[in-house]
């Protein structure tokens, strides 16, 4: 009988344990089925944004505002539908055991797509300047130079360059922090939100929706959208650094963070404006007169300094040592480079306003700080080049390393030429001429383009788990065609610009200008042809690269996804 009681008691305890185990398992399953909070917040945000876009478009009397309203409705409704399907299927749950590489892969593809688009538009407008009689369309204003020129500049800087920066920063911060991107689904919001900004800005240029501010053309509501996206970008980046498993913050992340924070500051202040109406596309700047000009070029020059310099220096400090398999030449110099660059650069904007109503002391201040930029800029160039100490033989065998080295060389040349052109006496000759165009493109094509291409060549095999690129020979072709194109372009613009400036200065014995403006335009026709050919060669290199990366992605790959515990780049002391 006692044996029977013990058996019954044992069975009762077993039933209790089984019941508790099933309860714990059900709670665990319920926890897994529950959608993550970040995805629910993004879902709610997208839904409210779609409703807001619908109501704003419905109640607006402004035809151009409604045009962008329809684009916003389509984007938000599509995003809401995609998120609905993703939440129901459980695809928005993220594992902390692997890097968030899907958004980086999307960034690489977007980078190359916008590179081709931006460069293609550049070749078109160069041809329009070369053969204006053939390529002028009076019935189609959106096809002419005035509309296409900001499309080209923003396409290359913000679409191509911006996507390269977002993709590489997301890649680098994960590897150097040994942590998955923070925010769950929000990195995808940053990516797709930025693509929406690009589309809104580009279609706005073609439709004539513009503030007419250099590098800050989009109107107020597009600026507000970019602000939302940029704040999300900053929070994702900071959140990843916050949860890092590596105690040291690698120097590349300092440059990326400075780029993100400073661009946010520049964007908000320069674009302070009063809309004509809450549902109208037009706005007026909060600043006026010379204050407006100073604010614009404080923004314009530091967009170059932090978007096109600091961010891409972060790229250099990660991918050059990684590709060369050498530590940074001097890690202490990289920190000195960082702090001196960000302090000095922010003051240099007034050198764009020599011989204007801006007080001369302010002009001189901008010129002085521009000249001081020689030191940190060349310190960074030397640090990048000397990182190859002990690995110079790779220049003969690895065309990607060669491309990066040429990029650093162009960085050094551009950061010498820029301070030179800021000197008032030199500026009186160079300003408003093609010399400035040549200077900008030596930095944009030589430095920004080549370091971005080098980073993409590195990341594609790593992200898609390939042993190597599809063809090193195609990289060689890309390198030599694009390098020749750059040299043709900037040399033609140097000759054209100096000739143009000297012709504007020429006076007759009676004191009248010796050359009419149209005569200076006619005189540089040959240089314009050379510029068009150089741009076409650079575009051809980008097309070759796109094909090479596409074939690389299609190569068979048996490798598995990397864990977060994979080794990161260790800085040298």
Distance between the termini: 78 Å
Q: SS-based structural class?
A: mainly alpha
State the shape: globular
Biggest sheet strand order reads 1-2
Overall pLDDT level: 90
Count of helical stretches: 19
Relative strand content: under 5%
Fraction in helix: over 70%
Regions with pLDDT < 50 over 5+ consecutive residues? 19-32, 565-573
Over the alpha carbons, how many angstroms does the gyration radius reach?
27 Å
Q: Report the sheet with the most strands, covering strand number, pairing sense and barrel closure.
A: 2 strands, antiparallel
Oligomeric state of shown chains: single chain
Q: What pattern of helices and strands is seen along the backbone?
A: HHHHHHHHEEHHHHHHHHHHH
Write down how many β-strands occur, each being a DSSP E stretch of 2 or more residues. Answer: 2
